[in-house]
Amino acid sequence: WHIPKSGGSTIKDILAGCFQITIADEMGAQFGHAEDKELEVFMEAGNKFINLDTTNPAGIAKAKALNLASSGLVDAIVTSYVHEASELFSTSHRGRFFTVMRDPIERAVSMHGYLGRATWEANYDPAFATMSLEEYAKSNKVENNWMTRFLSNQMTGEVTESHLAVAKEILRTKFVVGIMKEFNTTMGHFEKYFEWQIVNRPHRMKCVENMVSGGSNRHRYAREHAIKGSQAYSLLHWQNQLDVKLYHYAQQLFQEQSDYFDKIPRPTTGTLK
After folding, report:
1. Fewer beta carbons under 10 A from the terminal one: N or C of the chain?
2. How far does the chain reach from its first CA to its final CA, in angstroms?
3. d(Cα 135, Cα 67) in Å, to the nearest integer?
4. How far apart, in whole angstroms, are the C-alpha atoms of residue 49 and residue 64?
5. Which residues make Cβ contacts (< 8 Å) with residue 70, sequence separation at least 6?
6. Spatial contact of 99 and 178, defined as CB atoms under 8 Å apart
7. Percent of the chain beyond pLDDT 90?
8. Beta strands of the chain (E only): which ranges?
9. What is the per-residue pLDDT across 128-152, written as a single tens digit (0 to 9) for each?
10. In the predicted model, what is the mean pLDDT of residues 18-45?
């Protein structure tokens, strides 16, 4: 489950670049593949991608029509649309959800700084470049409980405590939860859960270390920070009060899962070649 500005791009680059597995994400509709009628794996910059864009509902519907999950051609599917993506799978072709989550206020600040400069993004908006953080928090451009909405499938209208309860239950029962501030530990959980062998693979280990230390799509141009007690912070917290609760719950789940993964040794063989 890809949550923008939460470390997901680094995870994608580790999977594609370090582990050399085939990814389904927005790259799948580029390089002339948007109108492809059959599934195909292609190479770009040394990485493998399936020719589908699973980051939007239309692309997921196409993936379902082409039986992506049962094709055996893809190893990891990247999307924000949990409910639509779940329809790709069946009892005979199951999927396993994992995600990396970030403090919602920090994520909002990062989005504010990023989208005013990220001309390559579909939701790039030059207005962000001159808008103060407080102005952004007051505007209709600010996100409202993004994580709770996507998990509870309440994309429009009001989100309530009942939607938060749905989001918590889905997170508890369906996900291996990562925390951006605990990225090394998060990668250790994923490594053990998916049996990604890094031990005794020095080139792969070095690649992962470089990706984790450098980060992918890391935004370095934030003009402001949300200082607790400031008007900007209060406004962002108000817009994301359910996501703040969800994040605190995710931190609890992360600790509970840590207690489990701490007892499991790192895999010395695994699912990767």
Report:
1. C
2. 24
3. 45
4. 17
5. 90, 92, 93
6. yes
7. 81
8. 23-24, 41-44, 47-50, 76-77, 97-101, 175-179
9. 888 899 999 999 989 999 999 999 9
10. 95
